[in-house]
Specification:
Blueprint lengths: L1 E5 L3 H13 L3 E6 L2 H10 L1 E6 L6 E5 L1 E5 L4 H10 L2 E4 L6 H18 L4 E5 L6 H12 L2 H10 E2 L3 E4 L13 E3 L4 E5 L14 E4 L3 H24 L5 H6 L1 H22 L3 H14 L9 H5 L14 H11 L4 H11 L7 H23 L6 H8 L2
Helix pairs in contact: 3-4, 4-5, 7-9, 7-13, 9-10, 9-12, 9-13, 13-15
Bound molecules: nicotinamide-adenine-dinucleotide (NAD) and D-Mannitol-1-phosphate.
Nicotinamide-adenine-dinucleotide binds next to helix 1, strand 2 and helix 4.
């Protein structure tokens, strides 16, 4: 069995690659990072370390790599033969890899109409659907219907904290032991792959992706933006600060109220889920950076359907007033500065030029008098 995985980064190696290896796939990693791809081809294996007191190590082997800048044709040839394609490259890179995948699918249908499934593993709602849309746009009209028939794009929600790595060996990844990968079953074409113990196939992904984004990523974002405001560089340090911890707890109760009302999660179970997640942020065996969690697209992270505005908007729809604590987190996000992060720089330039209110309106798509905007402005 052959898997093609785009993005040999933190989650790609630390989670998806490890699961595919365990399920018996040969995994070909596709990346634009020459150093990583050369190392994959030289070592043909790497280690995943589970970050807890036992420090258990898993060897991921049966792997190869292709540099998509140097060898795009080889990428297409591999997709033509693959059984599954996965991606963890970041939401803004999906339109870029769409070109590689489109070329691979065109090559594939020259010789086979065997179904293939393509799963984006990004922190966003509808990642695989977006990838499908971008791929279809690139296909010649006469091939579009056939490819759309054989290629499935199940959306997914991926959860495992994998910080930036500082190991001596380039490919080694330290990850938290916890993981969850929920994938939308009805969207598969052909057989659903057997990834035992790894994937939870669900009929409707929406409750899972929203629960994940609005709890794990909202809580994480709160730690990052409030932590940054109080001068912390590490997530685990920020979360120990009572001022930060109190707001995280309260903000996640607000997102929990939204999720429980919308999706009828059991309240006790959700309380347990929330506490477990906050505990994951303080794992003493992992060190995570505020710049990783809050940066890498702070404008995108303030988008209408993302981790903060998504639940805040839905809170207003359900309870007719704004969530105070989530609003404090959004206010802290607007103060996020990092000269090395291009989107953080743009955010501050927008605020300087247009002020907080217009910037918020533009980024979130909410009206100036929306309760979330008026409440956030109160906390700035
Ligand atoms: N790290 C986590 O804890 C975690 C957990 C769940 C989900 N995710 C999601 O997974 C995605 C990747 O996150 P990450 O932390 O692994 O980031 P990362 O930066 O470690 O990895 C991304 C990889 O994609 C590669 N890449 C960039 N452009 C490419 C292209 N055109 N073709 C092929 N590869 C390309 C990069 O070189 C890099 O190796 C993000 O959407 C993130 O939200 C991350
Ligand atoms: O990956 P991002 O940038 O969308 O979000 C940063 C972190 O919150 C995220 O990577 C978490 O570590 C991950 O989503 C945990 O499952």
């Amino acid at each position: 069995m052959l898997a093609v995985h785009f993005g040999a980064g933190n989650i790609g190696r630390g989670f998806i690659g490890a699961l595919l290896c365990d399920a018996g796939y040969h995994t070909t990693f596709i990346d634009v990072n020459k150093e990583i791809i050369d190392e994959i081809n030289e070592k043909k294996q790497y280690r995943v370390i589970l970050a807890d007191q036992n420090q258990e190590e898993i060897v991921v082997d049966n792997i190869s790599g292709i540099n998509s800048i140097e060898e795009p044709q080889q990428v297409a040839d591999t997709i033509a033969r693959a059984d599954i394609v996965t991606a963890a490259v970041g939401p803004t890179v999906l339109p870029i890899i769409a070109k590689n995948i489109a070329e691979g699918l065109l090559k594939r249908v020259e010789t086979t109409t065997k179904p293939i499934n393509i799963i984006a593993c990004e922190n966003m709602v509808g990642g695989s659907s977006l990838l499908r849309e971008k791929i279809l746009e690139l296909l010649p009209e006469e091939k579009r219907v056939l490819i759309d028939e054989i290629a499935g794009f199940p959306n997914s929600a991926v959860d495992r904290i994998v910080p930036n790595q500082t190991n001596e060996q380039l490919l080694t990844v330290a990850v938290e032991p916890y993981y969850e990968w929920a994938v939308e079953k009805p969207a598969f074409k052909g057989e659903v792959p057997k990834i035992n113990g790894g994937v939870t196939y669900v009929e409707d992904l929406k409750p899972y992706i929203e629960r994940k984004l609005y709890t794990v990523n909202a809580g994480h974002a709160a730690a990052a933006y409030l932590g940054n405001m109080y001068g912390y560089q590490k997530i685990e340090e920020a979360v120990q600060d009572d001022r930060v911890q109190t707001i995280i707890n309260r903000a996640l109760k607000e997102t929990g109220d939204v999720l429980i009302t919308l999706y009828h999660f059991d309240k006790t179970e959700h309380d347990h889920y929330r506490n477990k997640i906050i505990g994951r942020f303080t794992n003493p065996y992992l060190s995570d950076e505020v710049t990783r969690v809050g940066g890498r697209g702070p404008i995108r992270k303030l988008g209408a359907n993302d981790r903060l505005i998504g639940p805040a908007r839905q809170y207003v729809e359900q309870f007719q007033h704004a969530p105070e604590n989530l609003s404090k987190v959004i206010a802290a996000a607007l103060k996020y500065e990092n000269r090395e992060d291009p989107e953080a720089v743009t955010l501050q330039e927008m605020i300087k030029e247009k002020g907080y209110q217009r910037t918020l309106e533009e980024i979130t798509g909410l009206a100036a008098d929306h309760p979330v905007i008026t409440t956030v402005l109160k906390h700035l």
